[in-house]
Each structure stands twice: as structure tokens, then as C-alpha cells.
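[step 3/7] fold_predict: job queued, chain A
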Amino acid sequence: MQVNTVKSSNDDWDVAVRRIQKMAREDYSLKRWLFSAHLARHCLVIISAIVISEVLQNPFFYIVAVMLIGAHQLGLGHIGYHERTHGLISRHSIWNDRIGAILIHLVGGNIIMGYDNFRPRHLTHHRYLNTDLDPDAWAPKAIATTPLC
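[step 4/7] structure written:
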């Protein structure tokens, strides 16, 4: 009896998750151009920072360029990992995986955490958000229990 109840609640959960994911994809597909704009913005800032620092040959601009490039590489890595995990880069799963993999490789993301490790961990995070089973729940708990002085 207990096993059937757990299985039933898991099935209900899976149906609810699929329904929410479908709604998110439908909403996101309306904003696909916005994704392209973010991708273009990250690439444009990186290229601009490189060109400006090379043209000006100034240590201050070089430091600013390094910070800008790093920040926007992080943005590209986020798109590669997170949006690929949720299938939001492309409607077609093959293109979603290819584009995401290219973005991850461009920023050296596989050095930090391989995609094969990230995907199940991140989906587990969404399934068990802010519970003891959430693999990322340590951060809010650590912040809440850290004394201020």
C-alpha cells in the first residue's frame, strides 16, 4: 500500500512537472529572439573588449577588458549549461545539444564540471528545490546559519 502511494505521488509529480515544463517552453518560444539577442550581446561585448584593449594598449583598459570578457564568458557558459539542460536553446534536441556543447567548450566549461555531471544534478535541484534532497540547498542554509559578526 505504501509503495503504491509513493509511486502515485511520484507519477502525479512527474505529470505536474511535465505540464509546467510545457508551459515554460511555450512561453519561452515566444521569446526565442530574446535568447538570440542575449547570445549576440555576450559575443559582441567579448569581441569589443578585445578590440578596444588591443587598439588602446592601455593597462587600465586591458584590466577592464579581462573583467568584461570573463563576465560574458560566464554568461555564455550559463546558456550552454542551464538553457541546454532545460532544452531552451532550440526546439530541436539535436541542435539544442550541439549549440550548448559548443558554448560550453568555448568557455572551457568542461574543465569545471562536465555537462554529464551538471544535468542530473541540476534537474535533481529543480525536483527537490530547497529540501534536504536538493544538491544545491547547502548555500541558502549556510547563509542562514552564518553569524553576521
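[step 5/7] annotate
Residues 115-149 form one domain.
Residues 2-30 form the longest helix (29 residues).
exit 0
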